Amino acid sequence: MDWSKDSNWKKKSKDRRKVYARYLDTVKPSQIIKQLPALHEEAFSKINCLDCANCCKNHSPTFKTTDIKRISKFLGIKETDLIEQYLKMDEDNDMVLKSSPCTFLNSDNTCQIYDVRPSDCARYPYTDEDVFVKRKALTLANSTVCPAVYHILEKVTAIL
């Protein structure tokens, strides 16, 4: 499959949501977790995040205390100023961005704070860790935002 030429992946992902959900409900986590690192590597050898940056345009990471400390130091501002300027408390009492797309996203889809980005950003889309199986709702949501998630789900459900 030539992943780079699949321009309808968002629509296909929405159409196949039930298939993905059924798969994630029935697969033994240990069975897929072993495969994830290789699938992740394969996906990101064919997909360039800078081509879409959908994650930065559609999601806010959770900013943990350690993230806030690291980012404010990098920006040369007080932690309270970072929070006041850019962040808010969401309904789950997590610190998230006030606005979307991400404040730190450049017009060329690069990140102004890439080297110190929140751990959520560094881990996204969780395709090489157990979160992929253990947080089904998150994986299903990510499948319509991130082409790598879609393609990995396509690969693992192809044997059904």
Structure description:
This protein is mainly α and 160 residues long. It has eleven helices and two strands. It has helices spanning 9-15, 17-26, 29-33, 36-46, 54-58, 65-75, 79-86, 119-123, 131-134, 136-142, 147-157, and strands at residues 87-89, 95-97. Strands 1-2 form a two-stranded antiparallel sheet.
Main sheet strand line-up = 1-2
Helix content: 40-55%
Beta percentage is under 5%
Q: Give the strand tally.
A: 2
What is the domain tally? 2
Series of H and E elements: HHHHHHHEEHHHH
What's the helix count? 11
Structural class: mainly alpha
> Roughly how many Å apart are the termini?
17 Å
Task: Characterize the main sheet.
Answer: 2 strands, antiparallel
Uncertain runs are: none
Broad shape: elongated
Mean pLDDT comes to 93
Instruction: Compute the CA-based radius of gyration.
Output: 17 Å
